[in-house]
Amino acid sequence: MPPRDANWIDGLRGVASFMVVCGHLCTAFVPWLHSPAHDPKSAPHLFQLPFFRLCVGGRSAVALFFLITGYVNSIGPIGKSRAGNTDAAFSGIARSALARSGRLVLPTMIATMFSWFLANTNAYHMTKHVDSTWIRQGWHRQEPTMWQAIKTLVRAEVETWTIGWDDYDGTQWTLHLFLEGSMLVYMTMFATVLVKPKARIFIFAMLYLYFWQLGEGLAIGALKGLNIVIGMFVAELHNHYGDSATSILPTPVPALLIVVGMFMAGYPQDAPQNARWSHMMAKFMHSITAKDADIRRYWDSIGASTVLLGIFFSRNARRVLTSPVFNFLGRVSFPVYLLHNSLIKSVLTWMVYLPSAMNPPRNEKGEQMDLQRGSTMHVFIAIAVFYYILYRMASLWVQYVDPVCAKVVNAATKWAYGEPQATHPIRNGSIEKTVLPA
């Protein structure tokens, strides 16, 4: 399959996906790094400090995913609206809204089936006995009968999109929010295609204020709404400035935006009162948000949004994100997101805890205790092997699974539109592959 054209937003998506995996590994093995210090009187570890803590934090990466969702799903309709091509804008919105569900749901269903297969072949057995709370919570039993296994699979597939929880892969809780966020973009674009750009920016501002005061409510305002709106706003900037965007601001300003954004995005997930800098951030955010709001999500959102704006105006940052490495990370970002939890609970768990499993520790009564991980070097080697397997599998997913999903979605949408099904030419003895759009 030919690679997608390199673009900076794809590279940013790849960074976000990598950060999510790092964050979950941190939660699994060194959860104390999520706080800025062990206690108010202790000196922080290197990776508990601002900026460095982004290496082991994944919450701001989730905000980046929503920002990217708002950006990529609105850039086309805004461009057509500005050009006065409203018919094409409405048609594009309608087609994208119909296809978007399939592009999200179908790969997610396959990933759930993969986790279901691992669970029901007892690949998660060791997970139940490890000393990592986060990994242990992801354990799923092997169902006693095939009928029970099929019922749990169907329930997991449905509940991922209804209640937002998948018993076989808890990290899929964000996916129904991504789908809702896409529909929020399409609805906003549909409502603003006919308005002038200044009016649309005013509408974005009103939506931002609405989601700000909503807090962490049923609509997940600070996680979904704020980021979706800023993503649409950046898409508006893209259509306004075009290729000249990277020469609008003085060179130091975009870099400063990125640095400030990274600092804000590093707001700790746990115990902000343990460090003066995070305690001051907490007090400030509590003073300007709704009662009982999850201020962590607000700092994640503001920090990630500021980073996105800095990258948008920075020629150098864009150049880095379009390099071959980041282009690869972007191409495999979605399967990495879908597969990483299943591989953590199986392959990584086996590698980290196998020595202990071969000679399980027992207490004085002879009862088996939690399995203990190997040495630090052992864990680092296991994580390195895990990353290789994860990205290798993600690459194979892009090569073989994504084209099948694309063909299914394309066939379904053509059927819905009443269009004739396209015939796929045979090239070199194989069917021509289709690349999933971003």
Structure in words:
The protein has 438 residues and is mostly helical. The chain has one domain (8-112, 123-139, 158-358, 371-431). It has helices at 8-29, 59-82, 86-120, 133-137, 146-162, 175-192, 197-214, 221-241, 252-265, 276-288, 295-312, 315-321, 324-331, 333-358, 376-417, and strands at residues 426-427, 430-431. A two-stranded antiparallel sheet has the order 1-2. Strand 1 and strand 2 (430-431) form a beta hairpin. Helix 2 crosses helix 8. The two termini are 15 Å apart.
List the helices and strands and how they pair.
Elements: H1 8-29, H2 59-82, H3 86-120, H4 133-137, H5 146-162, H6 175-192, H7 197-214, H8 221-241, H9 252-265, H10 276-288, H11 295-312, H12 315-321, H13 324-331, H14 333-358, H15 376-417, E1 426-427, E2 430-431
Antiparallel strand pairs: 1-2
Helix pairs in contact: 1-2, 1-12, 1-13, 1-14, 2-3, 2-6, 2-8, 2-11, 3-5, 3-6, 3-14, 3-15, 6-8, 7-8, 8-11, 9-11, 14-15
What spatial form do the alpha-carbon principal axes imply?
globular
> N- to C-terminal separation?
15 Å
Major sheet: arrangement of strands: 1-2
- From the helix content, strand content and strand pairing, which structural class follows? mainly alpha
User: What is the number of helical segments per DSSP (H or I, 4+ residues)?
Assistant: 15
Q: Beta-sheet strand percentage?
A: under 5%
The average pLDDT value, as a whole number, equals 91
Rg over alpha carbons: 23 Å
Helix residue percentage: 55-70%
